[in-house]
Amino acid sequence: MKVHKILNNNVVVTLDKKGKELILTGRGIGFKKREGDLIDPNLIEKKFSLDDKNTVSKFTELLSQIPLEVLTTSEIIINHAKKFIEGDLQDSIYISLTDHIHSAIERHKHGFDVPNGFLWEIKKFYSKEFKIGLYALSVIKERLGIELPEDEAGFITFHIINAQLDGTMPNIVNMTKIMREILNIVKYHFNFEYDEDCLSYQRFVTHLKFFAHRILNQQSQTQQDVSLYEIIRQKYKKSHLCTKQIDLHLIQQYQHPLSDDESLYLTMHIERLRTELKNS
After folding, report:
1. Contacts of 264 (CB under 8 A, 6+ apart)
2. Whole-angstrom Cα distance, residue 233 to residue 33?
3. What angle do CA 76, 62, 99 make, to 5 degrees?
4. What is d(CA 252, CA 249) in angstroms, rounded to the nearest whole number?
5. Taking the CB of residue 68, how many other CB atoms lie within 10 A of it?
6. What are the residues whose beta carbons fall under 8 Å from the beta carbon of 60, sequence distance 6 or more?
7. H or E element, residue 274
8. Which of 92, 70, 81, 57 lies closest to 25 in space, CA to CA?
9. In this structure, which CATH number among 3.40.50.2000, 2.30.24.10, 1.20.950.20, 3.40.50.300 belongs to the domain 5-51?
């Protein structure tokens, strides 16, 4: 392999047999090198092959500005995350998470830690991803000698979720806000406390994640039989009344009236939740 671009002493770009850019990292891999020079394979520690050209461009720009240790730490966290979540992570996670960790460390060094206003919701709604965030803090402390606050585990959780849904950070924050609002409407409508360990609650939260994501991306749910909605509406009148309250809130705050399908699924989840809590 030959050097195609030199980003710094520890990062170079080469081309594979198909002409696709590969990012290579390793201590001294770019030291005193020029374009066209052969790359010492013994110095290669990591290879990054990203599919999107725009992502490659942004990633190479980022790597030219941050220490190799931060990149390596970020990769360890991402590889750990891939073992515990369903589906793929978007390539953009290599940019967003690496950049965030670098920025968080720099802020922390100057005493400017950022509080996370959604930390409680993150712990409750994204418990699996939050564990990855806590793992990330332990890796950062072990490898970089920086002990970041728990708030940062929450921000890292957002980046993981963002890479799963291929969304943007503001959308993930708004998604969490919608979930919190709906859960509060249900809670105060029936005047009960949630049992976060019960299966119906966990299923409801999972449904709300994708429901809120569809709202923010203006996506519609697949149409079901109208007669089924009428049956559910008549059978579970108390839960449907709560759904109507949610509908009113979504219209007022997000200009999103519930479709019959959305009302159907919300009503069914609310009924299961209400029944399980009533019998517990």
Report:
1. 224, 228, 229, 232
2. 71
3. 55
4. 5
5. 18
6. 5, 7, 11, 13, 21, 23
7. helix 260-279
8. 70
9. 2.30.24.10
Continuous segment of H or E residues that includes residue 24: strand 21-25
C-alpha distances in angstroms, 5 versus 34, 39, 51, 268? 8, 11, 18, 57
Topology (CATH) of 68-166: PTS-regulatory domain, PRD (1.10.1790)
Cβ pair 84, 132 in contact under 8 A = yes
Among residues of the chain, what percentage have pLDDT more than 70? 94
Give the containing element (helix H, strand E) for 8: strand 5-8
* pLDDT class of 225 with cuts at 50, 70, 90: low
Q: Which two tokens stand for residue 59?
A: 């990633």
pLDDT in tens, 5-64: 888 888 888 988 888 888 888 889 988 888 998 999 999 887 877 666 777 777 878 887
CA distance 99 to 71: 9
What is the C-alpha to C-alpha distance for residues 206 and 77, in angstroms, rounded to an integer? Answer: 24
Query: Residue 117: CB partners within 8 Å, gap ≥ 6?
Result: none
What is the pLDDT at residue 150? Answer: 98
Whole-number pLDDT of residue 236: 93
The pLDDT score that the predictor gives to residue 166 is 64
Q: How far apart, in whole angstroms, are the C-alpha atoms of residue 177 and residue 71?
A: 31
